[in-house]
């Protein structure tokens, strides 16, 4: 007879069994001794991933002993033996990439055609179905001050085909701390958790530069990637006379496997200032950044981490308010096998912003793969105190 185990119990067991090998890593620049943020750290044997914060810190929590791979677009790839990481706090130095003088690559195909082929091949190689265990966190700023924070451990059960991706979201634990004044959060999100994986896996953020008319707006060129001779980078930059809020793109790819490894885009401050137009109806954008990192491991090709930042001005109650949202997702583990669950466990909202806090461990320190900096921890603690004080006041019986 098959016994059914509750989803919560399965999550809890998974958490316990992932806590066997834990240590801290600080990643620094070899030349300057300064910390390096957003370094992707991957366990070579298991595929578990981690990400350094602005202090260069990361808590590595392995399910089994494994060498670690360190990757960052501005530094040379490094693999560190597990046996060398034998301290509670380990320092790893990465060597910066020295830009070459002659680094432009002459290609027979136009770079846009190369990119079209890369997107098509990458889509065909993406692993489906798959379960991605993700740590997600979001900081919300209002007038340059952080006013709200939420994070959580999420399972993305990704089903279907690349043409018709279906994602079921199961939230293990989450926190929502702080206050957002005004009802603006409904339209501040540049993403929807229910289709975010579809956007990433179909590389929809590249649609604007794959369009037939894009060559009239952008300059395309290919550059070498000196850290790895098997990789190249496609750079796409808006032409000076192109109007509007247009992003600059960088696409790093494997020349042999023909798959995209890293995709990033941003709009220059100069262009945003020059074209202060309504990018999203009633919103004037002042910051726009995006980044996806992909990896191939054990015949699986999948998202490793992502970042999205959007900052804009919005008129609320006859006042111009600056709003900024920063979202990070880190895929801490993955499994080709999907687990069973009921429909009632599926999270169907667009964001965790309205989900009430529910947690039974301090997952943000030991299971997130992306720990907060000391400054961020102080801000989160302060938001929590303010929230608890308001909640306590709201429970005081009225004398009226």
Q: Which band does the percent of strand residues land in?
A: 35-45%
State the helical fraction.
Answer: 10-25%
Q: Measured on Cα atoms, how large is the radius of gyration?
A: 22 Å
Class by alpha and beta content: alpha+beta
Organism: Flavobacterium cucumis
Protein name: CarboxypepD_reg-like domain-containing protein
Task: Describe, in plain words, how this protein is organized in 3D.
By secondary structure, this protein is α+β, with helices and mostly antiparallel strands. About 15% of the residues lie in helices and about 40% in strands. It folds into two domains: about 5-95, Immunoglobulin-like (Sandwich); about 105-395, no CATH class. The strands form three sheets. Strands 8, 9, 10, 11, 12, 13, 14, 15, 16, 17, 18 and 19 form a twelve-stranded antiparallel sheet that branches. A four-stranded antiparallel sheet has the order 3-2-5-6, with no helix packed on it. Strands 4-1-7 form a three-stranded mixed sheet, with no helix packed on it. Strand 16 (about 280) and strand 17 (about 285-295) form a beta hairpin.
